[in-house]
TrEMBL record:
Gene3D superfamilies attached to this UniProt entry: B-lactam Antibiotic, Isopenicillin N Synthase, Chain (2.60.120.330)
Family label: Belongs to the iron/ascorbate-dependent oxidoreductase family.
Organism for this UniProt entry: Reticulomyxa filosa
Signal peptide from the UniProt entry: 1-29
Keyword Ribonucleoprotein in annotation: no
Name of the featured protein: Fe2OG dioxygenase domain-containing protein
Keyword Iron listed: yes
Amino acid sequence: MVTNKTKICFSSHMIVLVLIFISKILVNASENTGGSDIPVVDLSKSKYEVAQNIRNVAKDFGFFYLINHNISQVLLSKVFNQSMSFFNLSELQKLSVKQRDGYFGYTPFEEEVLDKERQYNRGDTKEGYYVRGPFANKERRPLQWETLWIDEKIIPEFKATTLEYYYRLKQLSLRLTSLIALSLNLEENFFDNKFQNPLDVLRLLHYTSEPSNISSGIFGAGQHTDYGMFTILAVLDHVSGLQIYPPRLNRWIDVPRLENAFIVNLGDQLQRWTNDYYHSTLHRVVIANTSVQRYSVAFFWEPDFECLVSCVPTICNEQELPKYEPVMHGEHLLFKFSQGHTQLDLKTEL
Ligand SMILES: O=C(O)CCC(=O)C(=O)O
């Protein structure tokens, strides 16, 4: 027989269970999303846990925060200080290292147009500076460009600081690459032979405070996907702007800065390697009305020029056929690069 006492006991038990359930959801939400909609990957966990974590987030989001990455905040603030010193130089000084065919360097305000369809009369309201270290392979190959460095007398330690950061991010990218291989049930070294002379590059970015206007086609950065395997982004301060369009949500969402975390997004070639299983997610920068300007640093992790990208064996088989023809990474990169940077004449690179 069910007495009133048992009923009370049962319902209070239910309430406790519901409360535990809700608190678990809340804890998980803050653990997994860094307080925003974007998931977190924690590099301090075991490599198998990290790999599983990457697998879970790569499909639905293609974007995640990376924490416990071991890149010091001191180095990061030095890089941002150098970046601000550079972008504060006069236009004439910056133009002295302007990027041209065969050399990485400064890209002026509005030089890049990432989304020709929507940005019909204005380029990105940002300026940039591409940096990379010397190539291990000295023979002149396509896109093996040296960097035009600003004189050390103008900004002391600019080259040393940005290169130190560049090399640290290369190491981090190699680690992330083997974790991605594990996440796909591949040998950890599966991608090693595809990154013998990688075309990776670092880019300092500075957005002006001009507010974006979506209907007039004015964007900090027009919508695009990234071209290589993945990108590691650092953002200074809490100047919002980055928005992504995850396949699962079908709407634009903000990616706010998370303290001590990088923002990682997967690129076109990883989507191709995984037959669309992992996602290269559309993103853009929309500058709100703000008195503080946005500075970011993006590290683009790109395979070798000759690397033929085709579906990996743990995904494609007799049941699942490749959706794409194999593509040579350098050709894909040149095509995308020439679309965005129309002032360059990249025909000589082929
Ligand atoms: O600056 C940002 O937040 C994003 C940069 C970006 O999307 C890119 O350079 O591909």
